[in-house]
Amino acid sequence: MNIFSLLDSQTVFPALHAKDKAEILDKLISSLQNNVSNGEVEKIREAVMERENIMSTGVGKGLAIPHGKAPGIQETYAAFAMLDEPVDYESIDDEPVNMVFLLVGPQSSNSLHIKLLSRISRLMNNSSFREQLRGCSSADEIIDLFKEQEHVSFHG
């Protein structure tokens, strides 16, 4: 499964405004509403918040990868945001985040979930890719860049 195929213009934000971690998570989770039922949105919210309470998903280098596995959902969903201003996210390097990639999947898909998290981490660890993302001004540009980078990184 490719990361870019999980993203669409409703779930990608080139300049999201949020004052704190809670608002970022709320906006990203809410962006999934067109893809899932209302009940599923709440299950996703609970799963992501539960995981976040265990340990911050601010992984460093200005990136957070909030994630969770929710009961009752059947597919994997994602959302991505570049923030208009960096926000404190309780990251492991104590630096504020400016990019957030949300990933949620079914409880039953442990291996796929781990594989996708690994793929996101590998992509986002590339400083050149992060810099190219910062140059994007639309959701479509961001999705196209993910597609291109995935092809180069994993199929190239």
Automatic annotation (TrEMBL):
Keywords: Transferase. SUPFAM superfamilies: Phoshotransferase/anion transport protein. PROSITE patterns: PTS_EIIA_TYPE_2, PTS_EIIA_TYPE_2_HIS. It holds the Pfam family PTS_EIIA_2. Residues 5-149 form the PTS EIIA type-2 domain. GO terms for cellular component: cytoplasm. It comes from the Bacteria. Transmembrane segments: none annotated. It is found in: Cytoplasm. One of its GO terms (molecular function) is transferase activity. Its main location: cytoplasm. InterPro entries: PTrfase/Anion_transptr (IPR016152), PTS_EIIA_type-2_dom (IPR002178), PTS_SugarTrans_NitroReg (IPR051541). PANTHER family: PTS SYSTEM FRUCTOSE-LIKE EIIA COMPONENT-RELATED. This is PTS system, fructose-specific IIA component. It comes from Fodinibius salinus.
